[in-house]
Model the fold of this input.
Amino acid sequence: MPLIPVVLWTDALVYLLILLILLIVGFALYTVRHEHLRAPWLRVFRSRVGMATSVLLGFYVVVGVLDTVHFRLKLDQPATDVSTPIRYAPEVLSLLDVITSGLRERQEKSYSAPFAAHLFVKEAIEQPDGTLLRDYPRLVHGGAHLDDPARQRGLDIAWRALWGVLQGLLISVMSLSGLIWMMARARGESVGSTRAAILAGRGPLPWRYAFAMLAILIVLILVAAELSAKYHIMGTDKVGEDVFYQTLKSIRTGLLIGTLTTLVMLPAALLLGIMAGYFRGWIDDVIQYIYTTLNSIPGVLLIAAAILLLEVYMSNNADQFASLVERADLRLLFLCLILGVTSWTGLCRLLRGESLKLREVEYVQAATALGVGHVTVITRHILPNVMHLVLITLVLDFSGLVLAEAVLSYVNIGVDPSMHSWGNMINGARLELARDPVVWWSLTAAFVFMFVLVLAANLFADVVRDAFDPRLRTAL
Amino acid sequence: MTAYIIRRLLYAIPILIGVNLITFVLFFVVNSPDDMARMQLGDKRVTETAIESWKQAHGYAKPLLYNPEAAGIGRLTETIFFEKSIRLFIFDFGSSDTGRDIGHDIAQRMWPSLAIAVPVLLVGLAFNISYALLIVFFRATYIDFASVVLLVAMMSVSGLFYIIGGQFLLSKLFHLVPISGYDTGLQAWKFLILPVIIGVISGIGAGTRWYRTLFLEEISRDYVRTARAKGLSESRVLFGHVLKNALIPILTGVVVVLPLLFMGSLISESFFGIPGLGSYTIDAINSQDFAIVRAMVFLGAVLYIVGLILTDLSYTFVDPRVRLA
Amino acid sequence: MSTRDDVLLRVEGLTVQLGDPARPARVLEAVDLSLRQGETCALLGESGCGKSMTALSLMRLLPPSGRVLGGSVRLRDTDLLRLTEAEMRRVRGGRMAMIFQEPQTSLNPVMSVGDQIGEAVRLHGEGRRAPAAERVLALMKAVGIPDPARRVKEYPHQLSGGMKQRIMIAMALAGDPELLIADEPTTALDVTIQAQVLGLLKDLRQRSGMAVLLITHDLGVVAETADRLAVMYAGQIVETATTAEFFKSPGHPYSRRLMSSLPAADKRHARLAVIPGRVPSLERVFHGCRFAERCDSASPRCHCDEPAWHRLSSGQSVRCHLFDPLENLPSQERRPGTQDRPGTPNQLAGFQRGSEPLLRVRGLKVYFPIHRGVFRRVVGQVHAVDGVSFDLHAGRTLALVGESGCGKTTTGKGLLQLTVPSGGSIRYQDTELNGLRHRQMRPFRKDLQIIFQDPYAAMNPRMLVGDLIGEGLQALKIHATRAARERRVAELLELVGMDSSAAARYPHEFSGGQRQRICIARALAVEPRLIVCDEPTSALDVSVQAQILNLLKDLQDRLGLAYLFITHDIAVVSYLAHAVAVMYLGRVVEHGSVDEILEDPRHPYTRALLSAVPVVDPTRRRSLIRLEGDMPSPIDRPQGCHFHPRCPQAIAACRNAYPEEQRLSESRLVHCWLALA
Done:
């Protein structure tokens, strides 16, 4: 085997999450028959914002998933030697690393600005004649193909960008035509009429917004790929790592914090919230006590305390961790858990309130009158009727958690410093703000990628809430 | 009413005990003082004696819960649990791992925190409510649409960027105010103005959007239709009826955070070098001073509970329907 | 007929749409209406027919998605639709005022009622000499609010529903309106309070000479208060007439059907007339008469030509082809009739009174504790149900009658242990049910079932109808296999008159009446012997109510079910019940056979209650015994007889002790000191 798969803890949870989503999608396909289950989702995708943002979020998710498939490559060995066991590289890579291996491998020595051909700091350069000159040295990779960067660079960038745009347009047209052809087949119409309908915005779903977003993304990706083959399009950081690569790697961290936190807190919130509301009495008192107590501890401090303790534990038991990656991964998981502990109380309280209401609703009373047991009442009547709250909370919390990661990492109680994350990027760049001229590119890269993700998530969350909240629907 | 307050205060006791237990377990059971000493002393191969002397110096050289060597009541009091946890109940925070009196530090650092947090809250509230009213007055027009887009964009920006951007623009580019630092007395204003402005701006997105939702929710209620049927103008409906009702959730939402203002803002205080409780906490976290973190956890819990009680009380003042019993 | 001069309001061709312009709901189509000075005109129709939208369009208070497409609204010489918004605001609350259905939500909860009235006074009180505060008090006095000087500072939540509606009226009167639009002003109120409010409106109209446009679905209210009426159906007015003419001989087939679907005592042994189908969706485009598909006199022409107005010799105007003089058929003779199947006589042979009761309730008590103080000690009880006793017999219906808050629903839930009783005995055959635990109660769940008031809330929206009906079969392990359950569900659907294909659909696909049928099927699934019917028809329109009442009656005849029928609707009682128990403040005050109670009520409360019910037939009208005030709270009940503070006949004894049970006949019991005398 050329590689050996590595499944980190968070990877396993991501796979679980994907499995869950696939189950839900399968269920959704089943529900297509059932108008009222499908209706809220239809409302989501009927909105133009919902269509466009879901494509954008989809892009982030694809990057995140690519970055989740981890493995170790086989080391090159002399083929003759059969007796030695196959050895694998100690380095854990992901699919994303392989795809962007160019970015990963083109290390510079230190800071360099976006599209720069020279280092950001002066160094003593040995001249051919043996004298030393303090100047900005040429980069090893960025713009290395140019003979005279000062003169050629602008034109070179323009040509490459244009070439990227052309490639992108071509691929967009091809892939969109493919999609339209598939849709036409599914609908049993001619390709022409389907295309006309989509472009004119007819039909129940505003596909053209999704398609436009997709085309924009493809063009951007191609332009970025074309340019980053020869330049560091977002510069390099202190140790010369490509910032574009860093920010792509940070996507997985952001997404994980945003989703796994909710995933790990969900069982507790669901179980306790519904139990408190449904059974009332002493069960309710105990559960309320638990969440009031947890809530009264300031969240940041609880996280800080827990992370500090984890650090103490890790530094005292360093030998238990096979690699830095594993250690960083466990810290990430632990962070999700502790963030979950501080954030489950909100959902729990919401579910308790809703269950309190539902237990008095006539259909629950009717079920009781028919002798239906508590467990069945909860699973059949209460749970399905609070799931919209869970979904709304999930999407609403997502963007907040992504933002929280940055702040926590800034305070050094976030993800492991060795892990790529927007928080760490900001934290690292912050110290360089005092420099003159300013090292602005790490911040900007983190800002742009985070802002787009959070904005898309916020807009999508709004659409989902409007579609699923029955209270909002009644208003004319 | 009095009975209600007494009951709520009594209920606070088990909660604070719970908070105390959680912190005790986190700080002394999951990680023993030995671990902490090793961590603080840095090296993995520290000698036992070094650990013992560190523990001795910081008051951790005692059994956790029960001291069989002490006499009488001392068996319970001369323990870590009693000295480090129970004492918090009388607000005796002890001294930090670096030997400073935490209670004194808190009392001093509280004021700079308030000097930022209170203006941020008040100015933010005034601005957000006015802006939300404006949006609601022009609801379903382009002003509404553009504002909502702006607000969502504003709330999608991490607070860190507001601070970094604000510092960069106002201090570095225009040299209007000092980047960071603090001064005593009235001289402090020029150090405070930037954090306050940034605090207000970073709160606009979420705040105004929430108030807009509240106003819109109220505007669809039946009594608004009644008010219109009376012949009231739209602005009088908005200010006379809608605002009055929407202020109930707004005010109670403010009251719940009032006590927590003492805790200061972690991020902006440390960015701007304000010697408040927020930066105190951050420094403690970074220097891994467990005694301070523990004290702040307890203080935060107390203030949170006070906030909850105040919220319930504030309902009785602003909402004639609520009676506490 | 009338001189043109005294026409106050003239609506012509008013057409209104709601919602998305591409798929509009055509809520009003060419509505014509006129109102004379000082007259009360009723706008009658079932839910969703557009009557409230008419009122809102007149006030120009349509929801944001509403648009007036055409027509004119003239208030004397003012064309309201042409006024600017600022001018219209002076008309609103000034010349034209409106009161709404839900007094609970229609008042601002955080503003004192005095301020709310004062606001209207200040807006429209220019040129009046009396200061606003005095005018507020005067208005409150005028609408019959006792002790207005104290009440003026109170908030809406401190007032009862009837009081709130009076405040609404006071607010509407502030500008001395020429026209008062009352949108279902009494629907949310109890009958005795309804009588008070309707009486007040009548008085005010006589005193001030304003006209009233009364919007209602209640034929009885129309008959008792209106001078003229207009019947609305699916966004159109289909008939206008004077009240007297209309109730003597309604013209439009819809009106006739509506009248004959009203339950009443004289229809007891017959089926009620029903209107098949459901009110059409207003989103579709109509061709021809909108009622055609539900009309049993419809001719092919009705489906394609829209009928014109025809004036009948009796004076009313009807929008129906049947009255077209050009039609060769003599329309007056061929008026659509109500040819109903002759009623099946009640087959009560097997279930006569005197046989062992199925369920014997003695002294049932349901108290809810009130906690107060530091330790939340129990300091008092809400006496929701306080010693209720009755028997239920197989094949018979006991109606539990009373106003909201009297404990009738709690009694029903207490019987089924859905609310745990605090005391008393519930003997089902030979077993005491009170005190059984959740698990022990299970064997009896099969025999005792319940149907709820709101068919929309009574079904889990996420379950298939088949699973809903089969729920009990599964839970009580009556049919273990899915196939057996499905067979049984199909049978049950057929039994309640629905197609068995309904099993594979979701509740939201059905109308209110169909949903109530499904709820009945669910209760019947476990073959109960007794069903508690908790106001099963009060959320339904009259024509649909008739279908459900017919069904319940059929089922009782066929299956020998015992019903505990909880209701506030006396007409339903008179149609369906065999025995009646009247509740007041948690206790039964009078109990007897339906004839005894309805024909000859003995308890003063029963008398007042019955007299307050609006009746269609003028010959059956009683003189109103108007009760003062509201029902006291079950937390703080009056000493002695609970009813004495409101009782017109109270004597000294009433103040001292709660009256003992007086047996007046074999079947009748009364709790009243006067009943002996």
Notes: Residues 9 and 75 of chain C are 5 Å apart (CA to CA). The radius of gyration of chain C is 27 Å.
